Amino acid sequence: MSTTSSTSNNTNNYLKELNIAKLAVRRASILSKKISDEIKLNQVDGINKNDNSPVTIGDFGSQSIIINSILKNFPTDLIVGEEDSKLIKSDKSLSESIFKHIKLIESLDSKNNEFLGEIESIDHMCDSIDSGNSEGGPKGRIWALDPIDGTKGFLRGDQFAVCLALIVDGKVKLGVIGCPNLPNDLSNESLAPSSSSSLSSKDKGGIFYATENNGSFYQPLTIDFESKEYEEIDDSKAVKISLNNEKTFANAIQEVMQKFI
């Protein structure tokens, strides 16, 4: 994968939706990255649902943040999420931990609170999670959300993604994917996904996004938890695949996909 410096020139009718989706996925990516690192250091634990499938406080926190952001801006839209709040409502310490992490990330990203809103209470958090209960359909505006795609990779501190798309009358209009641990330069074999754990925060993490008929773009995400803030990169880069690095790119993508399993 190579990129050419070019600010996205989005002229379609979904500019606000794209901007909100990018900000929300970025905020959820910061949250999930922090939690993934904590799990790797055994500071927090994963959770099993009743069917023994793995879920984490990252899933709940990410879904709450993104749904709250969508409904603040598009209150009549429907959302297909993955989680509900039954498990966390039955566990006070769990719900408090999720809420604490959300509030921390909101404070780090406070400059975007006016656009994304804030989770005001544990009840508000649960209501946001439960608002992702749409079953979808061929008509209307429907957001499809996977708060953490690749839970096993997430639990290992490896590759995972935060995924969001807007579907209007059965057609995908935009998509945003946050990849907190993905190296910024897949064409450089020294920055392969297998070595991502040794990379600095400046060398990995970013947002891929695309809108219908408008190309695909990548925006790096620099996270520095020590300084209690993160740097937002304003310039986006167009995503292109060139023949001279096709093999390296393909190998990198194959390696990433294996780490989601």
From TrEMBL:
<keyword id="KW-0378">Hydrolase</keyword>
<feature type="binding site">
    <location>
        <position position="82"/>
    </location>
    <ligand>
        <name>Mg(2+)</name>
    </ligand>
</feature>
<dbReference type="InterPro" id="IPR051090">
    <property type="entry name" value="Inositol_monoP_superfamily"/>
</dbReference>
<dbReference type="GO" id="GO:0046872">
    <property type="term" value="F:metal ion binding"/>
</dbReference>
<comment type="similarity">
    <text>Belongs to the inositol monophosphatase superfamily.</text>
</comment>
<dbReference type="InterPro" id="IPR000760">
    <property type="entry name" value="Inositol_monophosphatase-like"/>
</dbReference>
<dbReference type="GO" id="GO:0000103">
    <property type="term" value="P:sulfate assimilation"/>
</dbReference>
<keyword id="KW-0460">Magnesium</keyword>
<dbReference type="InterPro" id="IPR020583">
    <property type="entry name" value="Inositol_monoP_metal-BS"/>
</dbReference>
<dbReference type="Pfam" id="PF00459">
    <property type="entry name" value="Inositol_P"/>
</dbReference>
<keyword id="KW-0479">Metal-binding</keyword>
<protein>
    <submittedName>
        <fullName>Unnamed protein product</fullName>
    </submittedName>
</protein>
<feature type="binding site">
    <location>
        <position position="148"/>
    </location>
    <ligand>
        <name>Mg(2+)</name>
    </ligand>
</feature>
<feature type="binding site">
    <location>
        <position position="149"/>
    </location>
    <ligand>
        <name>Mg(2+)</name>
    </ligand>
</feature>
<dbReference type="GO" id="GO:0008441">
    <property type="term" value="F:3'(2'),5'-bisphosphate nucleotidase activity"/>
</dbReference>
<feature type="binding site">
    <location>
        <position position="146"/>
    </location>
    <ligand>
        <name>Mg(2+)</name>
    </ligand>
</feature>
